[in-house]
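Reopening this one. Same input as before:
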Amino acid sequence: MVRNAKKTKKSMHGVVTMGEVAERAGYSRYTVSKVLNGDATVADATRERVLRICKDLNYVPNPHAVSLVRKHSNSIGMVVTYITDPFYGEIIRAAEHEAASHGLQLLVQCSYGDAEKEKQIIATLRILRVCGLVIAPVVPKANRKLLNELETQIPVVCVDRYLRRQSSFVMNDNIASSAMLVERLISRGVAPAYLGSSHGLQNVAACQREQGYLRTMQRHRKEPVLVPLTTGMGGEDTAQFGYDNMAAWLRQGARPSGLFCATDSLSLGAMKALHEVGLTPGRDVLVAGHDDLGFSAYTQPSITTARQPKEQIGRAAVQIVADKIEGKIRPGENVQRTFPSELVIRESA
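Same output, byte for byte:
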């Protein structure tokens, strides 16, 4: 039964409340709450009246209050290691677009490669009642127990790497893409050295790229050469890291004819170090990177690389979370998607 509707006074802060909607509609707050939360037991006429009043008053539900009722918000958490990394920037952009297409918001946080900070971020996202999580874990084992527990409550999808083989993840086929680049260098008549990641073998993607290099060199009966990593370990794969370690190796007298770098950023720094000792990348030393970051086509020389499908990776990660939320994927079912990269031949090799 509809109560006698009264003229509603605007709240003192100018924001319409649920109580004001209830008063204008002539129903209790409880009934209005049931309508806004999609309760199927509410009569059609009641639902239509409440929604019409909400529209007339420009009422917007408080997202925090709604999340308390629904147990989860309409937000997906996303945690990456370095938000300054152009690779993650492109993945975040794609993930945001995919989330919006499902009516979801993306809350992006950065762990800066710190396992303890990652733990704190996860705790905060739980307090915010996110309905899912996309994460590039710092290291495979650091917060595995915490994330395993979280997986029993909300969908968790790893991106660019994975916690364990039996988990949901989306990533590039790093072994294949590395092999493709090494094959390119060998076909040009050089036996390339390898400049690896600052993450060493703790990072699954970095480990796989090194495996791709080693396997391909072995298949061609070439002696693998790993550039010694003496500084900046455990940090970000920046051009500075590539420059520092390449320059140190060159000071020891190394003069490679070819070089494969784990990322384009490392290639950028390595090429500067080569220039400083009088070696011209693309002529004296053939250089290949990985990722096809935005700057790679504009360096001198432009960088031969593997183009990761960053948009597909970002969208696929959110799509899996959304499908799990919507019940299209059974609870506990792991979805694993690996995408191939495309060889991009430019001036450096």
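So the earlier flakiness isn't reproducible anymore. For the record, The CA atoms of residues 145 and 223 lie 40 Å apart.
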